[in-house]
Amino acid sequence: MTKADIAKWIHKHVGTSQKDAVTTVDAVLDIMRSTMIKGEHIKISGFGNFMLRDKHERRGRNPQTGDSMPITARRVVTFRASHLLKEKMNDQ
Amino acid sequence: MTKSELISILASTQPSMTKLESEAVVNAVFDAISEALAKGEHVELRGFGSFTTRTRQSRVGRNPKTGDTVSVGEKKVPYFKPGKLLREGVLSRDD
Predict the structure, then answer these.
(1) What is the pLDDT along chain A (92 residues), one digit of tens a residue?
(2) Which end of chain A has fewer CB atoms at under 10 Å, N or C?
(3) Is A76 within a domain?
């Protein structure tokens, strides 16, 4: 499934025009992305939470050469699915 | 940010859209993704990330209250991998 398929789904289930559906899917994802870039978590009830985790710097290795090198401190996005989504994935 | 905040923000950025329409569209986005994952499909959203399903093997667990062993069947869990724009956007923690 791609953005285009989600737009088709919206067109079919909500009645939004194809063109507007494509625009709004992009708008929803843009809002979510910029929210996370600002450092804010996102909670979507019934779906899941997008959480930000701050990782400390640690020593890693270049798997190709085996050289030890530092992995800088960074922030990463993790997704925690709601139990409703997990149930939905396992009852079919 | 909660889902209702997302709905409000979407409505405010799309002048032609009422709050009710915004709510229907936002719900539809997550329904569509959930439905695809339930069917075992991948969902690939350029610039945002992709959702895939991973299978957890069946295992023998324990009831933490009674200590009885119980078998936990194989199950599917969703996995989200952030896309390049999102991953690189959140990377530096300068807030």
Answers:
(1) 999 999 999 999 999 999 999 999 999 999 999 999 999 999 999 999 999 999 999 999 988 998 999 989 999 999 999 999 999 999 85
(2) C
(3) no
Nearest to A79 by CA among B37, B43, B49: B49
CB-based contact, A73 to chain B, within 8 Å = yes
In a domain, A59, yes or no: no
Instruction: Report the gap between the CA of B9 and the closest CA in chain A (Å).
Output: 8
CA-to-CA separations, A45 to B2, B46, B89, in angstroms, rounded: 8, 23, 24
Domains identified in chain A, total number? 1
Q: Structure pTM?
A: 0.89
What ipTM was predicted for this assembly?
0.89
A6, A27, A35 member nearest B32 (Cβ): A6
Is A26 part of any domain?
A: yes
CATH code: domain B42-95 is 4.10.520.10
